[in-house]
Each structure stands twice: as C-alpha cells, then as structure tokens.
Amino acid sequence: MSRFPGVRFLTSAASPGQFPPDIGAEVAFAGRSNAGKSSAINAIVRRQGLARASKAPGRTRLVNFFELDAGRRLIDLPGYGYASAPATERRTWAPLIDALRARASLRGLFVIVDVRRGITVGDEGLLEWASPGHRVHVLLSKADKLNRSEASRALGAAAAQLQGRASLQLFSALKGTGVEEAQRTLESWLGQA
Ligand code: GDP
To answer: Which parts of 46-147 fold into alpha helices (H)?
Structure first.
C-alpha cells in the first residue's frame, strides 16, 4: 500500500523559473550518479517506476518535481559525481540548487550514499550547501551488499564523518531495509498535508 496513493509526476525544470509555485512543503533527494537514488525514491513512495520518469531521456539533468499529495512534493535532483560531465552541465547545476535552497517550501534534503563507497567529496559539497538551515538525512544505500558487521562498521564510519551534521540510516531498496524509517523521516519533515 502506498503512503502516497495520489503521487504523480508534476514537472521538470531546467531553470529556476520553471520550478512550481513555492507553496506547501517539499523534500529534495540527491546523490552521486548510480548511488541508488531512483530505487530509493521508488521504494519510499511505493510506486514502482515513479522515478523512472526522472530517467527518461533528456530528464536526467533536470530537477524533477513529484506531487505526493496536495501541497507536498518530492524533488529528484540530477545525479552528480561524474567527472566527465560536460562543464556546461556542471555550470547549470549550481544555480539550480542554489535557487532550490532559497525556497521557503524546502524542508530538507535526503542524500543517497552507496554504503560501500561512503561519503564522497561531492556529498560533502551538498552538506555544505545545506548548512546552515536545512536538515539532511543520509541513506546508506545498497546495504544488502554488505554483511551485518560490515554494514554496522560503515554506519559508524559515516556517523564519525558526519559529526552530527546529518541524521543517517542503513537502507536497501532491494531488501526493504530501512524503508519505513525513511518514510517516517520524510513524513515528519513534510508535516500534515
Ligand atoms: P541512481 O542513478 O542513483 O538513480 O541509481 P539507481 O536507483 O538507478 O541504481 C543504480 C544501480 O544500483 C542499479 O543497477 C540498481 O539496480 C542498483 N541498486 C539500487 N538500489 C539497490 C539496492 O538496494 N541493492 C542493490 N543490491 N542494488 C541496488
């Protein structure tokens, strides 16, 4: 059963002028390319293929907005971290997320981090972007790839690196690990519709 049965793709924005009206509450999802962000969104919203809309040709470099229910949105940010990304793409990313940060509706940021890779320089950049003023929740994704003791070591290492700058948890879209915890965090940030 979806927590957000009415979820729908709202719009893709290539520039801040295309963002939807800044009314209500929204939470942004970001992560290095291939970190498992689309899978995490699909697992949390419980709509298979929802974030596939963000992966449609031409949409991967756009900011994609989904309406969870009236006045509550999820924002899927373009993946980052490919050094080979054209300079023009990197130049357009910063103004987009700077404009996002200025939105009154933005309640916080989920950062998807491959548990085997740990928090990267690009992820650190996002943490700086979010601070001060925006909460960050880190999903250590693909936790099913590690055994229990490896996963708890990775969790400890990430917590040590974060030093309280973000909350964090283990997550596996494949196995369902941590999905409820992520849903609870998302819903508490968004508040009542
Ligand atoms: P995105 O680029 O960050 O949106 O990442 P995707 O969600 O497309 O996932 C990238 C790759 O990681 C795909 O091959 C997924 O099947 C795989 N993947 C994503 N989540 C999980 C997970 O929880 N467990 C495992 N084992 N693989 C995953």
So the answer is: 52-55, 87-101, 121-130
Residue 60 lies in a domain: yes
Q: What is the CATH number of the domain that holds 23?
A: 3.40.50.300
- For residue 2, tell me if it sits in a domain: no
- The model's confidence at residue 84, banded by pLDDT at 50, 70 and 90, is low
Quick one: tokens of 24?
A: 């209500």
Pocket of ligand 1, beta carbon within 6 A: 31, 33-39, 79, 141-142, 144-145, 172-174
- Identify the domain containing residue 119 by its residue range: 8-190
Cα-to-centroid distance, 116 and ligand 1 (Å)? 12
What is the number of the ligand 1 atom nearest to the C-alpha of 175? 23
Q: Give the pTM.
A: 0.93
Q: 2 versus 37: which is more confidently predicted?
A: 37
